[in-house]
Design goal:
alpha/beta, about 800 residues, 7-stranded parallel β-sheet, 5-stranded mixed β-sheet, 29 helices
């Protein structure tokens, strides 16, 4: 029966662990989470966002702002003297996290400012997550996991409050567990004092609230008085990069987050039920109480990493095609970019565009301007015009009247401009789609700009046409003489039909010149807009069509280059917050090669590299194409839609779409890892043994006794296969730590490509059993004198979030030990 579950990540570490949960679930089940599970994270750093996921992210985010700290502190002090509140100037960079100050993390949860009411926002997020988790579930009592780190300000600052807030909001909660990530055994604490000082302070707070005679009593910012003698969590599980048997530590925090994510993932897909069957008995036998840890290892075919690596490589090939400086592709064939050819084609196409623009200016509703010209020719040749013929003809074209031919054309200028914008847009889009080359498109724009410039130069210098009406009137005088000169009245032109033809041709020529005059500055504006304008110019009759711009193209190329990230990778630099395809490739390789993480990656082929090579050969026919990324849409519309978040969206879209394509083609089939273990039982034993070491360094006098009540089992897709492996290890390797009975096997039929070994440890006392607890205590109690501006009082105040910093206790005016008989829930 599905157990409604909410996983709440607190602080950056909580987010990173949640990302791994989501990733593991996608890898196993092709969804980010079960319907009855909700992910939520609470963060004080506005820049921390969920990374790219194969499917739409389902981790909800609650940003608790630390802006206007002074205002938040003053508001909270009204009616309450909260000794834990930080100094108003405790943080210089609000928005970048709690700065390692635990009280600032707690303040962020409690406070409100112009950016929002943090406390209310957290409450609503938890309530909404709860409602979604139980919506379609038969069981209405949810389980909640809270995961975060003890080292920073946010997670360690809100660790106690968030537990009691969850207990208040979900009164029928089934279980409330914590997974607390603590720093590993220090080689040198200098410069890491905040991490270890915060950890010790938080462990003190947890221990305090787990005492039977302690009551949590608070008046929350919403006016609610809450009081309880319950401990914050049923069980706090400590986890670090260390192992209790002294094995080499996990090298990176990423590795720690991966194992934390795997643990939480397994709990939401069936392991929680398996664990709880044993933990209830273990608690009854006093083998587990408030705190413990666990060990876990796995043998995995890294199908997801192979697929993502392939997707990143295919994305790089596609994006590099788009910005190739020398070549373009058409029908999957490669051609050189011939700039002379582009110029020749552009001139031809521009002349066609001008003709179309001139033609559309002739329309005046139901009448055509040519009919008007023909009527005027008849009048003039029959001498039926009013007044002098020359004045009459000139008045037809003068800029000084509005009801003449000039007025008609001027009225249609915008229509002609729209026509030009639309045709430039269509020509550009068609060419970009055909070539998939921003370089080719840029050369087209350069050629068009040069051609427009040549056109305007010819009009102004040769034809004496520009946008000035005074210049037009001067040119019109010459044109009038040309139209009425006596040549066409010679004998051979005596027939009225011949006279009409000659005059008509000359009037049409004059009309064409007039169109040039009326469009002159519009063409200049079009060129200017495409060359450097920031504001896009659209057609007024079809706003979906607009002029492409060189600056925009150049920015797109820059963004695409950054998305690829090859230049940054070659230069050896990369911002931790930046994403790129090359960076992702390097991170995947680093993850695959990190043998400090207790996950043995195995392959059908010889190696990860061989798997990639084989997979690439399968997908060779699917040459990178924009169709994979954008379907039937046009490339220009897609790139233009990315906006200010261009790099993030392009990165996400390309990875996701190519992953979908790779999955659709079944490029990377599943692999039964039990077959590998059968061939290499010694490797199976080695990895199973790693699960027996808990993720924490304990003192020499601490021994984790093997208790039959504590959970220890193997997780896999098939019970028969698991049984075979356990028996194989017992008979071939003399390894009998895992049992084939019901308690020793967890079958999850849909969980392909991985087998997990899990061992839960018994009770620990973190204040005595962690091997370096004395070092952490000393760091907590003695401020680092080498830190500029630090004092003993400030040091203690920054570490304490729930106690009185002056005396170092965890009792405060609002949280203090009382007689449990006098408390109310």
């Amino acid at each position: 029966m599905a157990q409604p579950t909410i996983i709440i990540g607190i602080g950056s570490s909580g987010l990173f662990a949640l990302e791994q949960v989501q990733r593991f679930h996608y890898e196993a089940f092709r969804t980010n989470k079960p319907k009855h599970v909700e992910y939520l994270y609470i963060e004080t750093n506005k820049d921390n966002r969920v990374g790219v996921t194969p499917l739409q992210n389902e981790i909800g985010r609650v940003y608790i702002s630390l802006a206007q700290m002074g205002t938040m502190i003053r508001n909270l002090k009204q009616g309450n003297e909260n000794a834990w509140l930080p100094e108003p100037n405790a943080l210089l960079n609000a928005g970048l996290g709690a700065g390692g100050i635990r009280a600032c993390g707690r303040l962020a949860l409690w406070g409100k400012n112009d950016e929002g009411n943090n406390f209310t926002n957290v409450i609503r997020a938890i309530q909404n997550a709860y409602a979604r988790a139980v919506k379609d579930a038969y069981v209405q009592k949810p389980t909640v996991f809270i995961v975060g780190s003890s080292t920073g300000g946010t997670g360690s600052g809100i660790f106690i409050d968030i537990a009691y807030l969850v207990r208040h909001l979900i009164e029928d909660i089934k279980e409330l567990f914590a997974l607390l990530l603590i720093p590993n055994k220090p080689v040198n604490i200098r410069n890491f004092e905040v991490m270890y000082g915060n950890t010790y302070s938080l462990i003190k707070d947890i221990s305090h609230f787990n005492e039977e005679n302690t009551v949590y009593r608070e008046k929350w910012p919403n006016g609610k008085n809450y009081e309880t003698t319950k401990p914050p969590y049923e069980l706090v599980q400590f986890m670090s990069q260390d192992y209790n048997d002294g094995s080499p530590a996990i090298n990176t925090l990423t590795g720690l987050y991966k194992m934390a994510g795997m643990y939480l993932f397994l709990n939401i897909v069936g392991m929680r039920e398996k664990r709880m069957e044993r933990l209830l008995d273990a608690a009854g036998a006093m083998h587990v109480k408030h705190y413990n840890t666990f060990g876990m290892s796995a043998i995995q075919f890294p199908k997801d990493q192979i697929q993502e690596y392939l997707a990143a490589k295919m994305s790089i090939k596609l994006l590099e095609r788009w910005i190739d400086p020398q070549s373009y592709y058409q029908n999957n064939s490669k051609y050189p970019i011939n700039r002379a050819e582009i110029k020749e084609q552009t001139i031809e196409r521009w002349n066609e565009m001008l003709e179309d623009a001139f033609a559309i200016m002739d329309s005046t509703g139901n009448n055509e301007i040519m009919y008007r010209i023909e009527e005027e020719v008849e009048l003039v040749n029959k001498n039926q015009q009013s007044g002098n013929a020359a004045r009459y003809v000139r008045d037809l074209f003068t800029s000084k009247k509005s009801d003449n031919l000039y007025g008609i054309l001027r009225f249609n200028v915008q229509t002609a401009v729209d026509k030009l914008v639309e045709e430039i847009h269509d020509w550009f889009v068609e060419s970009l789609n055909r070539t998939e080359s921003l370089t080719y498109a840029r050369e087209m724009l350069l050629a068009l700009l040069e051609t427009i410039g040549d056109t305007l130069k010819f009009w102004s210098q040769t034809l004496k046409i520009n946008s000035e009406t005074s210049q037009w009137e001067k040119r019109l005088a010459t044109q009038t003489n040309y139209m009425l000169k006596s040549g066409f009245l010679l004998a051979r032109h005596k027939e009225i039909g011949e006279q009409n033809r000659v005059l008509l041709d000359r009037m049409v020529a004059t009309t064409t010149l007039m169109k040039m005059h009326l469009l002159f500055d519009k063409l200049a504006e079009i060129g200017k807009n495409m060359k450097r304008e920031d504001v896009e110019k659209k057609s007024t009759r079809d706003t979906s069509k607009r002029l492409p711009r060189l600056r925009e193209l150049d920015e797109m190329v820059t963004h695409i280059r950054s998305t690829i990230g090859k230049d940054i990778a070659q230069e050896g630099g990369s911002d931790a917050n930046e994403i790129s395809l090359y960076k992702r490739l390097s991170l995947i390789i680093a993850d695959i090669n990190d043998d400090s993480v207790p996950i043995l990656r195995v392959y059908k082929a010889e190696s990860f590299e061989k798997e990639i090579e084989i997979s690439e050969s399968k997908i060779a026919k699917e040459i990178p194409s924009k169709t994979v990324l954008i379907g039937g849409d046009d490339l220009w519309s897609y790139l233009s839609s990315l906006g200010y978040n261009f790099i993030n969206i392009l990165y996400k879209d390309s990875i996701q779409k190519y992953r979908e394509k790779i999955l659709e083609m079944d490029i990377v089939p599943d692999y039964d890892v039990s077959e590998y273990i059968k061939r290499r039982p010694e490797e199976g034993k080695r990895m199973a043994t790693r699960a027996l070491a808990g993720f924490i360094s304990v003192g020499n006098d601490k021994i984790f006794d093997r208790s039959p009540y504590l959970p220890r089992f193997v997780v896999g897709e098939d019970q028969t296969k698991i049984t075979e492996i356990i028996n194989l290890l017992q008979h071939k390797e003399n390894f009998s730590e895992f049992s084939t009975n019901n308690d020793g096997i967890l079958e999850l039929p849909d969980m392909k490509n991985i087998m997990v070994f899990f061992d839960e440890k018994g009770t620990i006392n973190p204040l005595t059993d962690i091997s370096y607890i004395d070092q952490m205590q000393e760091t907590y109690e003695n401020f680092p004198s080498h830190v500029h501006g630090m004092t003993a009082q400030k040091w203690k105040r920054d570490r304490d979030a729930y106690g009185n910093s002056s005396n170092g206790t965890t009792a405060s005016p609002t949280v203090e030990p009382v007689d449990p008989s006098n408390s109310t829930s």
